[in-house]
Amino acid sequence: MFNPIGWIKPEIAQAHCDIPCGIYDPVSAKIAAQTVQKMVLRIQALERPSDGDAAGFADYANKIARYVEVKEQHAETCKHELAVLWADYGWPNTPAGFDLHATFNAALKLAGQCKQNIDMAKCEELVATCDTIATAFWATKGESYSDPHAVARYGS
């Protein structure tokens, strides 16, 4: 059978988006990092039920499993968003004193450490590093960075 386009072998594009769009914003990485932080907070706040409380233990195990799964997913999302921003954004006019590669490398490692552990200090450091990256990113566009909704978004 004749295939009129059989000689064309399209390749899969590897980009942030298919066009590519050129739209980047580090806030997606920060929101993912805050979600990791919030899950660690929830895990640390859970009270283990007393021995013999089967129903309480089942509820506890269910919550732990769900919190850990969300923590894992969002740590991976944070890593993905940071990697895309690091690799695909051109980083023109990078601010003096901002070590692009060391900062992103540190952020990616922190996200991995947040997957491996229940460590609020690492979560806080990851969120702060996302803010550092966002500050440098917006400076490349001649804008100052602020996240006035961070506290409300994170909640109590």
Short description:
The protein is mainly alpha-helical.
Explain how this protein is built.
The chain has a single domain (27-146), classed as Nickel-containing superoxide dismutase (Four Helix Bundle (Hemerythrin (Met), subunit A)), CATH 1.20.120. α2 runs antiparallel to α3 (100-116). The protein is 62% helix and 0% strand. It is mostly helical. The chain has five helices and no strands.
* CATH fold descriptor: Four Helix Bundle (Hemerythrin (Met), subunit A)
Radius of gyration: 20 Å
SSE run: HHHHH
Q: What is the mean pLDDT?
A: 91
The CATH class is identified as Mainly Alpha
Instruction: Compute the number of helices.
Output: 5
Number of domains: 1
CATH architecture: Up-down Bundle
Anisotropy-based shape: globular
Structural class: mainly alpha
End-to-end separation: 65 Å
What low-confidence regions span 5 or more consecutive residues with pLDDT below 50? none
CATH superfamily: Nickel-containing superoxide dismutase
